[in-house]
């Protein structure tokens, strides 16, 4: 037998590569650490067993020779299997394997030198080498069995973890799809509400245009009537004769006109007060619009915040999803309240437009009444002038009858024409009235009496008409006062309602701001929790990395080299 020494083969321990599948991460460090610990324990036990066997061989070397001769063919097979074992292609594993090979070569040289120095009988050396080879073969078989069992166990654990992770992923996908569908539905509802509001706005603008056109037509008609009244006044004034005797009547009429002017001023003041109240209401509406714009701005901010939060909430737990749904429901309630407020504002605008139309109608009625009063005054003046002329003619006829003779008398009365309304007159106008007394005086008397009867009838008709219009004027003034009182009451009530609505809007705005602040605080808390979790994960990874380094150092220092494939 040759004095050939055989050394234990290099055992390779390969760990299955754990990959990331579908965004799910499995930490392989725990698996590797457990395997290494078990491997070290087995190696220590095996060393103790080998030491015991070596002691037995030293005591009884001849009892094991037969067994070693029978196990020689098994050694060749084991050597062939060792050659077939190939380490996986990995840069880190290859470097580690090279270091382990160099170390094993050095250990082999040291063992060869020690065995060469030792003086042992050839039979004992061969028996010892055979025993060592046999033990190495058994060790190799046991290591392969343990390795296969560990690989199968790791595969099962990985399959279970992947199955669970896939289930969790499917649940998260379903939840995200539900949230997306709900968001799409809500966005569609908001779009429909915006389209309805646009349609209402277009209809209101069209109605406003129609009202303006009707106002313009009414103003044109009023101007035409005023021009016609001025022309009629001028025609009537051209036929007036002696105006100097009507100074007293004019003074009384002026007093009446002043009273009317004072009443008109009072009405104008009332109208001015109403206009001021209308302006105040308009300003209040402007403030409400500003508040609405602020709410829309806040709404847009909330939408941006919501879109940002959706991406973060998809990665979080069901509790965060419930909080988000509750906040979104509050947001929808606020939007419904906002739409109700917009409807109320549109109704208030319509009421204001109706009140404006009522004020314009009252102004037009007032102008018509004034024109009729002026016409009545003018007709009254004419009647008084005609009556005075008749009395003068009758006095002259009676004086002529007493004298019993007919004399032709020419009287020329020159009086300046007094014009009530401002009329452009280039030269002073003089009206010459000639009164001639002829022989056929009786015919003139009959004619004059007929005119007197006609004038008296006309006077009675005018008096009746004046009384009618006076009563109507009084009734209209009373109704106008009642309307003004009602308008004032309505304005005050509307002011109170608007103030209450403004207070409610302010309270809603405060509640919205409080909710937004609460959302910000929740977001900050979530960010802080994420940062703390990231810090914890980083600490855990560093600890795992340090553990792996320590395990590698333990394996390097062990007696039997173990080659690791640390591919994560």
What's a quick, concise take on this entry?
82% of the residues lie in helices and 3% in strands. With 568 residues, it is mainly alpha-helical. It has 2 domains: 191 residues, no CATH class; 287 residues.
Record keyword descriptors for this entry.
568 residues; mainly alpha; 2 domains; two-stranded parallel ribbon; two-stranded antiparallel sheet; 82% helix; rod-shaped; disordered N terminus; disordered C terminus
Description:
- The chain is mainly α and 568 residues long.
- Helices cover 82% and strands 3% of the residues.
- The protein folds into 2 domains: 11-174 and 538-564, no CATH class; 239-417 and 430-537.
- The protein has 8 helices and 4 strands, in the order βαααααααββαβ.
- The chain has a two-stranded parallel ribbon. A two-stranded antiparallel ribbon has the order 2-3.
- Helix 6 (247-313) packs parallel to helix 8.
- Residues 1-26, 61-66, 68-72, 81-96, 118-125, 405-438 and 559-568 have low confidence and may be disordered.
